[in-house]
Amino acid sequence: MGVTIHDVARAAGVSVASASRALSGRRKVTPEVAERVTRAAAELGYQPNAVAKALRDRTTGTVGMVVPGIGNPFFTTMVEAVEHQLQKSGRDLLLCASQYTPEIEARRLNTLLARRVDGLIISPCDFEASAPAVLNAARQVPLVQVDRYIEGGGADWVGVDDDSALAQAVDHVVAGGARSVVFVSSRLMNSSARLRLAGFQLATARAGVDSGAPLLGEFTLDWGFEAGRRLLADGTLPDAVICGNDEIAVGLLRALRLGGVRVPEEVSVVGFDDVGHATMCDPPLTTVRQPVEEMAAEVVRLLGQVRVSDPRPAQRLAIAPRLVVRETSRPVTSGADTIAAAGIVAGNGQEEEEVA
Predict the structure, then answer these.
(1) Which of 7, 35, 102, 326 has its CA at a distance of 20 to 30 angstroms from the CA of residue 289?
(2) Full residue range of the structural domain in which residue 344 is found
(3) Boundaries of each HTH lacI-type domain copy (predicted)?
């Protein structure tokens, strides 16, 4: 049997009640008693019973998080940022992946609820099919959506301003001389895919450039490579390709290189996310940087404000992204005034131009 509170109290020469008060910090004890109990607990290796504490305090100090897949570098980065924010308040993160399947997502949510998490953070995998399970969870614990959201909202959401992101990307390639731009992204199963396509269409219409039919598949390297092969097979390449995420862009770049296409001399390529792939590919990828740390901070802040059955309308917070110009896009042509350089920032040993 492990060390109990009775053992600590006996070693410190105090009552069990005094030892409990000293270790919990909920009620004051004299400095002398606190010091004796703390020293005795350390010497004996005493660990509080987390289950008993949870039942007593009605809190577990844990937050559950469900993302579509941890193999996607963006979600990995977001999970790390959320965990960092939770650590500031002494809370732990329990992570699950839905594997892009609503049925698995529902089971993961139920598992986390059974573990009595204090709150949930989720990036729903499906705009429509995820809604029942997400709404059910939101009726039981505080819940905030991140990056993606379900149809009709239903819970607070923090994400990126996709209209701004695609406007920056389109304006940049147009300023570099592009007159035909193709969008390569995911099928419209989630809110991110829908918002990014809508933002692209809005930006190209405003810029007055030929956008052609979008190529929609998955947010994966394999789909990016396949989309690149399709563009090569068409025979006429666009001046620029804007991608729904960096994984698509990296796969596309490989296909273009194998096809003998020079980037950015013949085709400019712009990604979305600014994850590790962006600086490691050759040439380094021009991409829209998602403000992951700021998004994570807002998610955790909102989670602390949400109350179950609160009649207030769900909050939606879209955070402005930044375009980071590297080497896969042509420089702004002389006289172009559609974008303005905001400065130079250091990153991974090379200069990056960050555009407002």
Answers:
(1) 102
(2) 162-290+321-355
(3) 3-57
